Amino acid sequence: MANQELSKSLGDEILHHLERNANIYIQTQDQHNNKIDDQTPQMMIPIINISPQISSLREIKLVNSLLENGDGQIHSVKLICRNCKKQVQTKLSRRVGSGTFIVSCVLLLCSFGICCLACLPCYVDDCKDIIHLCPDCKHPNGSTPYSIFQ
């Protein structure tokens, strides 16, 4: 019985100290907040009512962008042909270029003269230059040379 009374009195004492410390903490926080409020200048912020402008769908214009030429592009592009002045989707033509020959020479040297491997880049489309042609008038509208470091 004495142990229960002792533990109850210790529990009450701990609870009393916790409540006292909590009250002290709250008071110091209130004092700190009051000091900050006293130090900050009071500013008047004007409130302006701005109603959002709602644009209708008729006011939105969609712009379809066209490229000037196909230079640097590896896929077919939509452009206006320089020759016939029509809007076209280019047709791709692939041709053997200087990059293809360089790769062939490197393969010839690395394969110790085996010609089969040296001819391989001439048959692989990814190793060829790309020419963008107009499908109507067949005029070239740009090119992309093959580069080893693409």
Our estimate of the beta-strand percent is: 5-15%
Task: Give start-end ranges of low-pLDDT stretches.
Answer: none
- Alpha-carbon distance between the two ends: 88 Å
Largest sheet, spatial ordering of strands: 3-4-5
Structural class call reads alpha+beta
Mean pLDDT level: 79
Q: What composes the largest sheet? A: 3 strands, antiparallel
The percentage helix is 40-55%
State the total count of DSSP E strands.
5
Rough shape? elongated
H/E element order: HEEEHHEE
Number of helices: 3
Radius of gyration: 40 Å
Task: Furnish the topology, listing elements before pairings.
Layout: H1 2-39, E1 78-80, E2 87-89, E3 91-95, H2 98-110, H3 115-123, E4 129-133, E5 140-144
Antiparallel strand pairs: 1-2, 3-4, 4-5
What does this structure look like?
The protein is an alpha+beta fold and 150 residues long. Among the domains are: 37 residues; 67 residues, no CATH class. 40% of the residues lie in helices and 14% in strands. The protein has three helices and five strands; from the N terminus they run H-E-E-E-H-H-E-E. The strands form two sheets. The chain has a three-stranded antiparallel sheet, with no helix packed on it. Strands 1-2 form a two-stranded antiparallel ribbon. A hairpin with a 6-residue loop joins strand 4 and strand 5. Helix 2 runs antiparallel to helix 3. The model has no long low-confidence stretch (mean pLDDT 79). It is a peripheral membrane protein. It comes from Paramecium primaurelia. One of its GO terms (molecular function) is zinc ion binding.
